Amino acid sequence: MAQRTVPAISREELLDRVNRLPRVPFAHLPTPLEEMPRLREALGPRAPRLLVKRDDLTGFALGGNKVRHLEYRLADIRAQGADTIIVANVAQSNHARLHAALAARFGLTTYILKIPSHKDTPVNGNLLLDHIVGARIVEASSADPAVVDRELDELAARLEAEGRRVYNVPKHPSCKSDGSIAYLAAAVELLGQLEERGLRADHLFLAAGTSSGGLALAGKVLGEPYRVHAVSVGGSREQVTALVCDAANGAAERLGLDARLEPADISVYDEYVGERYGVPTPACLEAIRLVGRTEGLILDPVYTAKAFSALIDQVRRGAIGPDETVVFVHTGGLPITFAYSEETLAGLADA
How far is CA 349 from the centre of its chain? Predict the structure, then answer.
């Protein structure tokens, strides 16, 4: 087990710095922290103590980690006087769904530049929810990043020419660091919940992204012993490490923190991606089945199940021992499940 180090900052001071930033609270917080005893038993006598931080239950538009992010983004949208949000993503994007719901709730308009993908039809999952909350969907002509970037700029220019005040989410400088800032606060929330039970975490597992950067940076500045394991669902280890560190360090800069997140401060995996982003792996489908049937906990086949498959594999390899405590941060994504019924049912049939 790793040992605590001397903190660079107290939890109270970290929260004070985070709370100085404009924020519009609407997430249901704190989210529950739950034990997973039946899953631990299923993984055998060498399995660690397992808990899940239920950030799928943040309470807004079917929840997810990005709800925490959006509390800060909404404050900035209002500060900019924007009345229109634009995002670019694939049909089953949690990011797009939550921005569209945010706009509906707070009287804005959302345009989604929908990037072509293999899950464009039928209209279900997140894409169906986008329609329900009134998002205006514009079809990108190609999935090529350069084309998407150009068409995003063209969309923004057209809307501005119509007199709209546009908040271009992908192009906004705080887009990534918002997520890490939100998860600095989430880390303090989690640490308090663990202490109430007389526990400390040795490992945190979750799908890689800006949230994992915030958790890792929080551990570093607070001197906490936990190790963050960020599991890529698409990019290479190098790409994901750069993204996570950049987001965390953008947050550190905004908050005036001296510490910076370095690649050695976080474990990033790309071996659980499989064929590519959005394609379930056999291990991911096993995780859906195993976690669902031992804990009644639903994982999605794009993000959380791939992340959980890494946790299961690391336990089976003996990299994590029975005297340790692992927290899986469930980042949501439930609507995606309904777009993958055939693949999921095939995985269940193979059991």
Answer: 29
b (16+ CB within 10 A) / e for 49-75: bbbbbbbbbbebbbbbbbbbbbbbbbb
As a whole number of angstroms, the distance between CA 92 and CA 56 comes to 16
pLDDT at 349 over 90: no
Q: What is the pLDDT confidence band of residue 165, given thresholds at 50, 70 and 90?
A: very high
DSSP single-letter state for residue 135: P
Tokens of 18: 């985070």
User: Does pTM top 0.90 for this prediction?
Assistant: yes
Concatenated DSSP letters of 43-101:
H-TTPPEEEEEEGGGS-STT--THHHHHHHHHHHHHHTT--EEEEEEETT-HHHHHHHH
Cα 286 to Cα 117: distance, rounded to the nearest angstrom: 24
Eight-class DSSP state of 202: S
116 backbone φψ class: left, alpha, beta (φ>0; ψ -120 to 50): beta
Output the pLDDT for position 83. Answer: 98
Residues 6+ apart with CB under 8 A from 156: 86, 166, 168, 171
In this prediction, residue 1 carries a pLDDT of 61
Distant-in-sequence, close-in-space partners of 63: CB < 8 Å, separation ≥ 6: 28, 55, 56, 57, 332, 334
What pLDDT shows up at residue 198? 97
Q: How many CB atoms lie within 10 A of CB 8?
A: 14
Q: How many CB atoms lie within 10 A of CB 5?
A: 12
Note whether 221 and 180 are within 8 A (CB). Answer: no
Query: Chain centroid to CA 315: how far?
Result: 22
Residue 212 in contact with residue 187, Cβ under 8 Å? Answer: no
Strands (DSSP E) found in the chain = 33-35, 49-54, 84-90, 109-115, 136-139, 166-168, 203-207, 227-231, 267-269, 325-330
CA–CA separation, 66 and 69 (whole Å) = 5
